[in-house]
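Allow me, if you will, to draw on your knowledge of protein folds for a short while. The matter concerns a single protein, recorded as an amino acid sequence and a row of backbone structure tokens. Kindly check, if you would, that the fold set down in the tokens agrees with what the sequence suggests. You will find the record immediately after this paragraph.
***
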Amino acid sequence: MSRINLVSNESANEEQAALYAAITSQLGMVPNFLKVFANSPAALKAFLGLHTIANEGSLDAPTKERIALALAEQNACEYCVSAHTAIGRKAGLSNAEMDANRAGDSQDAKAATAVKLAKALAEHNGEITTAELLEARNAGYSESDIVEIITHVGMNVMTNILGKASRVEIDFPKVSLQKAS
């Protein structure tokens, strides 16, 4: 049971209901973690805005999901591992690839560099080495791509924190963490 209230469709005020309608038109549902965010319509709008902008960038959907899976596992957020496993499948990632992502790697050499950089950014609160940046550049990531990786790290860490703090009920097929939290 969630430790922070989930705003139900029935209890949503006019602003929350309008946000839910927009989310449902995109996803076909309102995931529970967004129902936690909805306690503050301003926070929900901020997250949705960041998510929309981040999805307009140059990183492809599979790479974004690889990053999300790596950070969800690193940060021990079972809700996020479950959600991004379902989303990763829709983005075309295999089970073996998602297992590699959760372990901080990828079967794709370029994507492995993005996953490694994302994990380092999260683990060291942005204090990465010049060598880590050069590795990303040498793998073919542009300055724009690197900024997008950083943006996705921030967005995923935020959702990992929300998922863990609220202990929101998982409303995707449940996937257990690889390591004990």
Q: What stands out?
A: The mean pLDDT is 96. Residues 14-54 form one domain. The chain has two domains: 14-54, 61-166.
